[in-house]
Amino acid sequence: MISIFTDGSSRGNPGPGGWGSVVVNDGKVIELGGGEKHTTNNRMELMAAISGLRAVPEGAQAKVFADSSYVINGITKWVHGWKRNGWKTKTKDDVLNVDLWKMLDDAVAKVGSKNVVWEYVGGHIGIVGNERCDEIATAFADSESPVLYQGPLSEYSIPNILDVSHDEILLKAKKSNSSKSKSGAKAYSYVSSVGGKIEIHRTWVECEKRVKGAKGARFKKSFSADNEKEVISEFGGASF
Q: 3-class secondary structure for the chain?
């Protein structure tokens, strides 16, 4: 079984972004990464998954570890309806990021859909493969050129890359933060979804102006960069 770790990042949404993948196959490791000057977090998450799967030989078995529910739900659930509807959502809108979804669908088809297993992993809770992908992705988002390793697992700087256990302390801290009452907390941003298109607003006034009176509009306050990412992923399926 080939193991693939993936992650994407963007500085702003849209803004400069990057993606990273780590592919572990038969005692060998390949790190992949790249970036774009103007993109979104979801597009970078998709690019990470696409690139990782493209490194898998046809017919091989692979497990993809990702912290993006948008990617996992899209490729395991939503994509079937999209294809039946000519890559349209249930509301007859164009599927957002359709170019990348088609690439990911093709990458999965090349390997064989029954040969690809998708597993969600929490971000920033100490899973070393996810953390390494995040390092690669954020480096490219910051216009840096990280050194990408290709070679034997025995010489890799993260020998326990296949350990998908998490750090209990980090997980508890994350759960504690998310469970606190946030009603009066200062907003990091406001995320809105109108007609399947997501926008980020720094003030409630901007967000309200966009969603007020718009049919099927959704909006939510985020409290950190990570929380904003979670909301974006959540809204990624708003129209599917």
A: CEEEEEEEEECCCCEEEEEEEEEEECCEEEEEEEEEEEECHHHHHHHHHHHHHHCCCCCCCEEEEECCHHHHHHHHHHHHHHHHCCCECCCCCECCCHHHHHHHHHHHHHHCHHHEEEEECCCCCCCHHHHHHHHHHHHHHCCCCCCCCEEEHHHCCCCCCCCCCCCHHHHHHHHHHHHCCCCCCCCCEEEEEECCEEEEECCHHHHHHHHCCCCCCEEEEECCHHHHHHHHHHHCCCCC
d(CA 94, CA 89): 6
* Segment among 20-24, 39-43, 186-190, 191-195 with least mean pLDDT: 186-190
pTM over 0.85: no
**78-100: pLDDT as tens digits:** 999 999 999 998 888 899 999 99
The CA-based dihedral angle spanning residues 142, 145, 150, 153, taken in that order and rounded to the nearest 10 degrees: -50
Q: How far apart are CA 74 and CA 117, in angstroms?
A: 14
Active site residues: 7-8, 45, 67, 124, 134
Query: How do beta strands 150-152 and 28-39 pair?
Result: antiparallel
Tell how far CA 103 is from the center of its chain.
Answer: 15
* Cis amide leading into 14 (omega within 30): yes
pLDDT higher than 80, residue 180: no
